# Entry
Amino acid sequence: MTTYMRRSLPRLMAAAAFIVAASAAHADIKIGAVLSVTGPASFLGDPEKKTLEMYVADINAKGGVNGQKINLIIYDDAGNPNQARTFGTRLIEQDGVDALLAGSTTATSMAIIPLAEEAKIPFINFAGAVQAVFPAKPYIFKTPHTDLMACEKIFEDLKKRGLTKIAMISGKDAFGASMQQQCMTVNAKYGIDVLHQETYGPGDTDMTPQLTNIKGTAGIQAVVNPGFGQGPAIVTRNYKQLDIKVPLYQSHGVGSKQFIDLAGAAADGVRLPAAALLVADKLPASDPQKKVVVDYKTTYEKNTGQPVSTFGGHAYDGLMILVDAMKRAKSADKAKVRDAIEATKNFMGTGGVVNMSATDHLGLDLTAFRMLEIKNGDWTLAN
# Structure
């Protein structure tokens, strides 16, 4: 080695270290998403995917987060929990993501949760069931209202209407089964007697036998249907065909125009708890949530040509909570971002006002739900 090379080597090494450090400082933020873009839960995953892609592009066009662009990596699990687990592992071990926005369904979210916890990666999921976020786990958060909250909002409305004796017909999917269980933990609190229960499978195409049993149960004043996907639409059509006169309640798992389209005219009169997003244009100007939901609805529908759903809103809230946390943490460091998400206060999202804490990784209360009624094929605020 020449004298010149010996003298130059420290400078070259320092320059190389600076280049590596500078590259690391400006490296992309990697956000991984595992969504049910196709398959039976595509009505959940498709608007989530479109929302994330649309808003990540907008964030990057405005300079990114803390001067870093977001690299969004999306995999389609087609609603299969095993696929969700496989893709979750790939995102963590091969793609090296900094955070996860994933889990279109309860089952797919539950498949990813232990992976994120073990790897200590912030994970905001889009599951409906309460077990996807309670009891609180350090790195796990979610944006949708829980099935327990849906039960309470429905029972609150039933009690207000003087309807205290009900039947339930529940899906056997993870969400439907969970909501049925949650409803049975709070029915006594609201003075609701469950006189009869029925269930149906994900592949069932006719719920007439179960609904006939319900119709024949004396004293029924209303029926509650925990479930998501095509099942609730079939229940609604069969309900109308059997001319069951008492009110029918669905869950927030049907919060998309697709449910109304599938159920047809039979959907009129159905009540359900849902986010304000579905009635964005109908909110009074004084409603503090109106601007957020109208802006998201307008942007989504303009860019996709499709009606807005609460499910895309869950993805919007998840992304914006994560981005806000990264800005406050001034970093994509996983532990710092986790702490910042947990410290989220007064975040106005499409789902409501979010106030996280060490024991509450959802941050929504019952006032975040609106009781809706379908009239003339459209969402309306229930009286």
